Amino acid sequence: MDTTDRRNGEYAPIRDSDESQLGKFDKPLPCFGCGIGWFCLLLGFVCPLMWYYATVLYFGNYYHKDPRERAGLAASAIAALVFTIAVLITTIVLIW
Asked: Domain of life, per the record (predicted)?
């Protein structure tokens, strides 16, 4: 497109629709749109093993595929840590 087209009030496209990076994060996250990390956090209250699964994904750098997953995976890792500490304290109290 040359400069004469822009002077006539027409808009030039910024990017081509065939470009691979266009809309990379426009697609919804997996697990009903909330992401694997947040889904594991919520499901972890029913089955705490899901927190450990998300922790493995977090430390395995799964969020490099989609940075939007990082917060949910970190929250699940923190929930797994808190749950582990609570189980350890409960076990120690019951044994003594």
From this structure: Eukaryota
